[in-house]
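Box 3.1 A note on notation
Throughout this textbook, protein chains are presented in two layers. The first layer is the amino acid sequence; the second is a token string describing backbone geometry. Keep the layers aligned when reading.
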Amino acid sequence: MGHTDLPFPPPRIPATGLGADLAKRADDGKPVRVCIIGAGEMGTDLVTAIRQMRGVEISSIVDRRLQSAKPAIALAGHDDDMGVICDTHRDISNALDRKRIPIVQDATTAITHDQADVVIDATGVPAAGAELGMASLEAGKHLVMMNVEADVTVGAIMAEEARKRGLVYTVGAGDEPSSVLEIYDWVTALGYPVVAAGKGKNNAFRIDAVPDDYREEAERRNMNPRMLVEFVDGSKTMVEMTCIANATGLVPDRPGMHGPDCSLDELHNVLCPTEEGGLLSRHGCVDFTVGKGVAPGVFVIADMRHHRVRERMNDLHLGPGPYYTFYRPYHLTSLEVPLSAARAVLYGTSDMKPLPRPVAEVCALAKRDLKVGETLDFIGETCYRSWAMEAGEARAEGAIPVGLLHNGRVTQDIAKGSLITRHSVDVARDTPLYRLRVQQDEWLGYDACA
């Protein structure tokens, strides 16, 4: 029998832990119901992942382009009539009663429905993440944030708002930041200091990349060219490392980090202090490598210099130390995220969230010369690329958080490669994202960042 002839979904096997708890929810007729916002690449993965699970169901899929959700539902293996377009709460309830998946254009209608337990933001747009994330919390729903760009801009205030309401705010499991945090939590629980933590960069690093240069590749990979460029020009890496920084207290060792070209076997000798032959000026940094053999994995480098520990590690063929790299050779992007939704509802726990006071900021450098009067485009396009900095340094230099730059107006010529600051750009102030960022700055006792 070929693999295409196997039954779908495959036969169930006994579950333990979270899987067993979800199975009981399914048996009791009380599944965790998830509202998915965004039916693009990430949203499609979520629909497929939830299709495999017991005890987790979709309360609705939200997308402004209603027809975008139907291919996601079909790809997951559902019948053609599974997705039902709904306009009202009553429509959603009727669809769920008939075991169908509601497809909704208006996010507020979906978020506020009483059968939605938890909302997953899969939009990837910071402005949408802020507006819909806060709407979810105000509606009393747990929030799973796949939108890391929103997390690094206003995650601290959203996590605080969730806490005040007795709700969970969490970055989704499985992507690089939360995969790093799994190893970080394990290492620090054992008591070992973390020297560095990060990832292998997945794509070639071309800082001046623009969508037109990657349109063909993006189409071949079924991606939006802008999103592909966000990976290529390093913007996504800066965002992800800042997300890790703000959840752990690790910091970029220098603006933009080091990003060495070193292999997995070399990491512990390169991302270690300069006095021991490495690049770092201190312990406790986030960084990345462009070397082969690390991506798509993530790593944490620990200081394990006790002589007995080093002896045991050497016996286990892990080297003489004192630095050791712990490595997960993969991350599953969207496919683990439903586990975050389940843990939020069943256990009230977060897989990853910012510390109350951010230690790093994602700012931006100009990709080209920018002239007075220009209107800035979006991350991954032609005007700028993301740039990670320590939060205090970013404030001192007047750097603007990259999430706020879209539709900003250039007020002073900016040379290619220069930091974009409040002295050279007026940002759009009539957005929920800007207002929420001002609220976060005021809560932290800072002047408004832009």
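The chain is about 35% helix and 15% strand. The CA atoms of residues 94 and 447 lie 49 Å apart.
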